[in-house]
Amino acid sequence: MAIIIRLDRVLADRKMPLNELSEKVGVSLANLSNLKTGKVRAIRFSTLEKICEVLDCQPGDILEYEK
Amino acid sequence: MKGGMKMNHSFNKKYYSIILSITRWITKVSVVVLYIAIGFLLVGVGVLTLLPIELFDFDLGVLENINIQSLNAFISLNPDFFSGIVNIKGPVVLVGLVVLLNIALLLFIFIMLKKVIIDVTDDKPFSNKNIMRISKVGYAFVIVAFVFPIFEGLLLNSFINLLSLSNIGFNYMVNFQQLFIGLLIVVLANIFGYASYLQEDHDMTV
Asked: Which of A3, B39, B147, B206 is the most buried (most CB within 10 A)?
């Protein structure tokens, strides 16, 4: 997969557990866990927006393109 | 991400679940009845085959009317033209086999339908297994459209030979009704396949 999810890194920086993010974003823990481990095919703009809002970051901080 | 069917607002869920439960019940009962019927028929055809041929001697003089109905033809014959004793073992066994084949097809369709409905009630309507089942039913119809007319022809021919009718023949013709039903089901299965892909895409999106 060329797009790598860096959610775990951002979460570690903010010292926020995944379940707290799940509550604040309104996405189930299972789904966020899948997102964190890169087991998803797509992410909605609305979900990305909420994650960025809660974690106070840019989409580029969460998603990374690797050649 | 979570699997399951998202219902449209215009969709009457209550009405849909009633239809599903009725169909589920009908298919359940039908499968049991068809299994029993197929069992009886198997035994019946087996017994008929084993019975001595002399028991099947039949006096044509006692016939009041003779009607031969096929897929594409209905022949009504004047019984006064026929007399003498003929042996009907072959045609009787053949009738049994044709009925057996028809019931076997019906049983196969009902078993598949039952499994499809179980998956639909479990909120997995677009599962790959369902698509396979629907395609199997479609291909069964396509095969049957070509194979059943052969048996029907054999049956008709056996009656033609039995009554020594030299001026009636049987032409093989594919059952286009079954063929189109089969092709339609195969196309629907492919549409289901695409729906399955969309469902998977939806489930894999956060």
From this structure: B206
pLDDT digits (tens, 9 = 90+) for A37-64: 888 989 999 999 999 999 999 999 999 9
Domain boundaries, chain A: 3-65
What CATH fold (topology level) applies to the domain A3-65? Answer: 434 Repressor (Amino-terminal Domain) (1.10.260)
Residue spans of the domains in chain B: they are: 13-203
Contact B206/A27, CB-based, under 8 Å? yes
| Residue labelled with tokens 């084993």 | B50
Closest CA to B154 of B94, B104, B89: B94
In chain A, positions 18-57, which contact chain B (CB-CB < 8 Å)? 27-28, 30-32, 34-35, 40-44, 47
- What is the value of ipTM here, to two decimals? 0.80
Over residues B113-147, the pLDDT tens digits come to 999 988 888 877 788 888 999 999 999 999 999 99
C-alpha closest to that of A11 among A52, A42, A40, A64 = A52
